[in-house]
Amino acid sequence: MTTIGHLINGIVQNDAARTQNVYNPSTGEVSKQVALAGKATVEEAIAAAQAAFPAWRNTPPQKRARIMFRFKELLEQNADEICRLIGEEHGKISHDALGELQRGIENVEYACGVPELLKGEYSKNVGPAIDSWSEFQPLGVVAGITPFNFPAMVPLWMYPIAIACGNTFVLKPSERDPSSTLFIAELALEAGLPAGVLNVVNGDKEAVDTLLDDSRVQAVSFVGSTPIAEYIYSRASANGKRCQALGGAKNHAIVMPDADMDNAVSALTGAAFGSSGERCMALSVAVAVGDEAADALIGKMKAQMQELKVGAFSDAGNDFGPVITKAHQEKVIGYINSAEEDGADIVVDGRNPQVPGYENGFFVGGTLIDRVTPDMLCYRDEIFGPVLLVVRVDSMQEAMNLIDAHEYGNGTCIFTRDGEAARYFSDNIQVGMVGINVPLPVPVAYHSFGGWKRSLFGDLFAYGPDGVRFYTRRKTVTQRWPSAGVREGVQFSFPS
Amino acid sequence: MTTIGHLINGIVQNDAARTQNVYNPSTGEVSKQVALAGKATVEEAIAAAQAAFPAWRNTPPQKRARIMFRFKELLEQNADEICRLIGEEHGKISHDALGELQRGIENVEYACGVPELLKGEYSKNVGPAIDSWSEFQPLGVVAGITPFNFPAMVPLWMYPIAIACGNTFVLKPSERDPSSTLFIAELALEAGLPAGVLNVVNGDKEAVDTLLDDSRVQAVSFVGSTPIAEYIYSRASANGKRCQALGGAKNHAIVMPDADMDNAVSALTGAAFGSSGERCMALSVAVAVGDEAADALIGKMKAQMQELKVGAFSDAGNDFGPVITKAHQEKVIGYINSAEEDGADIVVDGRNPQVPGYENGFFVGGTLIDRVTPDMLCYRDEIFGPVLLVVRVDSMQEAMNLIDAHEYGNGTCIFTRDGEAARYFSDNIQVGMVGINVPLPVPVAYHSFGGWKRSLFGDLFAYGPDGVRFYTRRKTVTQRWPSAGVREGVQFSFPS
Amino acid sequence: MTTIGHLINGIVQNDAARTQNVYNPSTGEVSKQVALAGKATVEEAIAAAQAAFPAWRNTPPQKRARIMFRFKELLEQNADEICRLIGEEHGKISHDALGELQRGIENVEYACGVPELLKGEYSKNVGPAIDSWSEFQPLGVVAGITPFNFPAMVPLWMYPIAIACGNTFVLKPSERDPSSTLFIAELALEAGLPAGVLNVVNGDKEAVDTLLDDSRVQAVSFVGSTPIAEYIYSRASANGKRCQALGGAKNHAIVMPDADMDNAVSALTGAAFGSSGERCMALSVAVAVGDEAADALIGKMKAQMQELKVGAFSDAGNDFGPVITKAHQEKVIGYINSAEEDGADIVVDGRNPQVPGYENGFFVGGTLIDRVTPDMLCYRDEIFGPVLLVVRVDSMQEAMNLIDAHEYGNGTCIFTRDGEAARYFSDNIQVGMVGINVPLPVPVAYHSFGGWKRSLFGDLFAYGPDGVRFYTRRKTVTQRWPSAGVREGVQFSFPS
Amino acid sequence: MTTIGHLINGIVQNDAARTQNVYNPSTGEVSKQVALAGKATVEEAIAAAQAAFPAWRNTPPQKRARIMFRFKELLEQNADEICRLIGEEHGKISHDALGELQRGIENVEYACGVPELLKGEYSKNVGPAIDSWSEFQPLGVVAGITPFNFPAMVPLWMYPIAIACGNTFVLKPSERDPSSTLFIAELALEAGLPAGVLNVVNGDKEAVDTLLDDSRVQAVSFVGSTPIAEYIYSRASANGKRCQALGGAKNHAIVMPDADMDNAVSALTGAAFGSSGERCMALSVAVAVGDEAADALIGKMKAQMQELKVGAFSDAGNDFGPVITKAHQEKVIGYINSAEEDGADIVVDGRNPQVPGYENGFFVGGTLIDRVTPDMLCYRDEIFGPVLLVVRVDSMQEAMNLIDAHEYGNGTCIFTRDGEAARYFSDNIQVGMVGINVPLPVPVAYHSFGGWKRSLFGDLFAYGPDGVRFYTRRKTVTQRWPSAGVREGVQFSFPS
């Protein structure tokens, strides 16, 4: 059986230490093994990145960008293979994997513009014949720790821009579906990255802690669940590093009485059940304003959900696939059970989906639960499964209060035709990414991704302009040239 | 005796709890008492800031800026009184206090431009008929914790821009010289800030910890010593807050053989001894390249230092005043003693300055120490006194290696006429603020202030553009308007 | 009788040449004389500006900005006197003059931020060890030619930012109401502008042509009517100068059936009749979509217009005052006559307003004309009087086609509650300044002002970021420092 | 014989009207014919561009950028063929043609970042609950008119960014070497540009005037000689268009006594003779400060020029090739003759170069002329040939005065090691593109290209950020949503 190794200093290798099973969630079978890097292996990767830094930092940004141009081409040429690897280990249907990859490629495209993005600020005559400018220099070795649900996209949120800015990188991807991530990293090297500029180590907590504690690592980017994000942020910060840690979500959509209901239903169906709901931007709660809107929504959703096809990743006719593990499948079903016990109304029940030929796959069918209330467990937690909750409220303000009371603040959306409602909502809601009639308001690559409240720890968001700022360190130079003929008196006061 | 209180919700008050002595360091006498806020008092200030936030946030930026315009006028009109208060409690000579104030005012001027600075990014057609924009919204309640050495300037680095961005503020200034800070905050209210927008609490660790732990405080800015900066950064981060913590420094100036030596000596004299060296940007180490440069430097410095006048703050003819406390005076003298014991050459000895009429003042005279080596205690620590060390090296690269090996990376400078030396130095040195023939390369208010390595924890610098980014939270809105005639099919894939 | 002179090199003077009457339009009487500068006088002003340029250009931007801070204070302190001067010569009621002045002051506030606005772009390593940066340097002497309708505001659109950028300025204001303009310029000098930095010449075509033809004048900003704008742009360009020339307007407001009609009527009344309609942003055409909306609009407008008070500038209870001249009064009445002859419906007739005690004032009352069609003279021309035309159409698209067919494209507005209508309108309409439920969408000072089509000639708008760009010239520096040890071979190819 | 036609609406066609000879300047023979478009043909191209505009404008910028990504790939894949076409018709050696192409490709790379570059400015709460933002919308049909000397690069300065911004384009390249330009345009279509988005018309003054006069053309970019630039700017402006017109140059290099002389000589040799001096950035005047520097320079130049190889484009071992036409060859030789007659010292004489096998080619050899003075014809005019003049002066200031007195201000350079000299020079010199030890300071694609004085007419430079601004029109939207419960009173004053 294949064992997936690490990419260190340009070479794929395996430290022959501990390994862990990698499953095909569509069949429930173990398909590969993944090596789990020990401390020494991670330190080897850090050392490779450290060694590669000086030359890479001095490479003109335009030349670094040109490798990103080539990387984009290779990603496009290898899209089918990448999507197959994602599907096999994550379970995502190919059209969805392609969407993920495309979003990742957009970040590579953004990194191609790094000469423009790195421009510093130049001020003439900050004092008489004194000039001052700010440069944005790379940090050195930076690390990324990424989740299973987007094995292609989330790493591409991080290292293309980090590397284009002149840093070198150590990536610790999810050990659940490591193959596509590793394959993509190899393409980056094929595109021309010098050895050591991008390194990948597979691993678990030991690898993570090594990255968090090693003083050579200057910054850490993390995407995952909130408890781990909090741990990462706290530990990296205690070690004096800069850190951005993105956590969980519970994304609500407000459905206003004036919404275009067919459009809202279409949007919600895709945003709630796509990728089995295993997205931090999944829309998992619909908040209907008024019983009339709620009844219309439930009725149309129910009808639409008849058409949902859950099944193996390899059949492009499916809408979504299995969840990531057996344990997670049971957890999702447990949330549905709890909702039922708490008195909610299970309108469409996905607990026993039929997927002929894939009886051991980790499937959960699309589930719609009405009359959910904020005190229910299914409402408080992030389920990360194909489950859409409906909460009924009497007013838009009540809907907004509900959203603001939740601990997460990642994404949200409102369905309406009314300009005033849209403006009031987007201005006041305590959520970082807001959609107006857009169910998955993931910012494009030239904006930045991040939630508020306990969905993100740090002050700069992921990718886009904030990514550039996160992966660079400001240096301000103030310059004057003494003229042989001009001598100044001593200046004891603070210069003004 | 006067007891200096707190400014909470627009009212100067005193919680009548613990107090601490405030000294006049020129005479060594206790001049006032300062109240030390307990947890409840700090929470009251936070509550006031929290209550003031919603209305302040919705006030148009231009109207917020106009209060800053008025604040600037009041600062200028009250400059004499501010400088007197600074001098009395800090010991700084009036011309130096005025320099400090002027630098603070520049930050108010920068805050006057906040409508421009808050501009978000607007993108048309991120998808077909879909628009997306990023807004930079205020965080809510933010806190600042500031040091004794710039009681006017450092608070003004923080709250003018924080408040102009729409936040409300709780300031915990140094308890050693609190009067000018409080007076200036009252002027800000006089300029038109609504009650609760700016609050000042005097206090010690209890007050600090309350700010770090209270969940209503969204962000913390700190300036002080590195051990405390590290504590603040770690604790604020563990509480999920954003934090920027600026610490200590050991600023080196390289003196190249081609330097304009008279200019360098003038510059060094002011930058090493001004404000008794109690500046995080003080130049405390001169690194002479070659013995010829070293000998010339020492010779000219010695001559120039004959003219130095140390004395009470109230005499504008003095060059610098006392250090802040008796304990600090002893500590500085201890460092000079240790240098002597370690074999360095005390060229000019300031351990027994004569200041007639002020025999109990906390004075240390200007001190010049030659032949210092990196292993000496006086080199490793930040002395924060009027002591200039000279290290002799053989090459520019050796000088740069020395600087890069030090734990701090705040400011540095090179004296040279050579363009290539200046570029190589500023590009490669691991220091955040670099001067070319500029001894105190404090960035102007429209750039940002920050060191590298253990001189700053966090990813954004103080004031200027980074200040705006630190005190705001990105929100990205993605908007489309459904057309009655256009219905989309369900979209299960991740949108690309 | 007072003769208003010129401000040249810091001195108000009079070349004792030709003069022209200045009227008080409220009484119809001649109140002053204004000197009309000959070629020699204008050249003297240009020479003064040229002489002042080198020192002013080298003054640090922050110091230039501080004069703008002071200028703002003086404008606020002298607001009453400025408004009185405006009212006396222009006829504008004091509350309206104050609004104009306030908008002008906003441009001074913007100019206070010039250190930030002048930041150039700095790129490290555009090639190996080669850096490049762009500076935005002032042009030298620049000229502004401004209209009668905003004697305070339009000059303040131009010279504060031009001067803050380091240019020196020659202003040729309208000869119809020159006093407030001159008074304000004197305040700018009082604020600290060195002599020669700002010069004012009153005059007519001879003065204008001198400015357009003199090779020392680097750039010309103009605001006025379209035929003159076209002349200015063409002649200045033929002389190799950069030029921005803002012309006329015919601003339409679309009233949609779903509009908040009371709000629309209030907005239209102010925007159509305020300042007697003598504004290039006046809303002069309401396009009602559907007869129902049209009838409701007409009914409510008619009622609202009963309350309109036209009268002398000195009575703050009046809504608007006289038009600028007897000739213009007759021209406006002529347009109303022509509408009547062309078959339009004069709903409210302002041709014979009663203003007791001011029988010779140049008054026209608020006029509402329904059933106007695009072929009528009153529709094709800019009337520049208190006349609101109503055109009835069947659809929003028809309304937009109408707007796009007009030669002007300055401002426009839509009244609606619908997000999609607002987006479609603002995206597609061929107009530079668009309001959504905002009747006078004059951009704030930190954005830029400009129309499309024949309302503006040039590529950069007035004031705001475009103003900064217009008044500066890009200079790009590319720098490398040869290392003694590194010699390059000859390079014959174009460097890549 | 082949006749080179036009590319209109996606189809290469020939209007079978007038034609003109295209030469191979290496052999002196006519190799092809080029069609000269009449007015009707140009109008057909404009109509095609006009028709393509609405759909192209609405294509999301990211999708437009992706065509640029593909275009870049095609340019790289077809580099050899492009260079062959350039060489054949222009005479440029392949390594030089490749340098030109590479610089062109950089502009395509820059255009790939257009989603970032098109970001507008978004302001929340410009008034209470009123938001305002600026969009940068495409203009419509824009035209480019380009010179013979860079048939690949200069068109690529213009249309990639213009098109990426959403405009459609009509290009009128030089009729002397049209093949590479046309071939590249076909690649752009192959990359995915819809028909009509990019059109190429070959032609002469009739084609140019049609572009200048047609009201559908919104903007004109021109690169060529100053007299034509002035004509273009004046006529386009008189027609109300925006225009940027780049003209001639006389680029001086100051050689300071402290210069690294070997480096300076290498740099000058390439910059003066590369591409036979037919570059608007060619260094054609060396200004030596002091006779010592002058003598050293002349001595080393003379030696270095022994190695110069002039010959046919097809031999990569040559340094440079022929000039463009027989007439131009004679003109260049005429200038050398005049210098000799005027008393200058012809140090190296290129009037009779020997190029065996290419006796009819339009060759001029590298020529070095010492002791040139500012009154000589060879100094006043742009020679545009492989001729380097040396002027001797006594001081740096004298050298700078000389440069500033010349009518052109395109590029310039200083050779020195001194930081102060570099800063003083770059700050004060009246030239748009300044090199410090960089002989051809052509800004990289992410900065902008343009000269000062009579080297550029207009206010925005070519390509880079200025290119984006030139090819877009600002639109400012101000939006508020009326709340049903909130009614405002009528507002007659100008809003403040």
TrEMBL record, chains A, B, C, D:
Residues 14-477 form the Aldehyde dehydrogenase domain. The gene is mmsA1. This is methylmalonate-semialdehyde dehydrogenase (CoA acylating). Keywords: NAD, Oxidoreductase. It comes from Marinobacterium nitratireducens. GO terms for biological process: L-valine catabolic process; thymine catabolic process. InterPro entries: Ald_DH/histidinol_DH, Ald_DH_C, Ald_DH_CS_CYS, Ald_DH_N, Aldehyde_DH_dom, MeMal-semiAld_DH. SUPFAM superfamilies: ALDH-like. Its EC number is 1.2.1.27. Gene3D superfamilies: Aldehyde Dehydrogenase, Chain A, domain 1, Aldehyde Dehydrogenase, Chain A, domain 2. GO terms for molecular function: methylmalonate-semialdehyde dehydrogenase (acylating, NAD) activity.
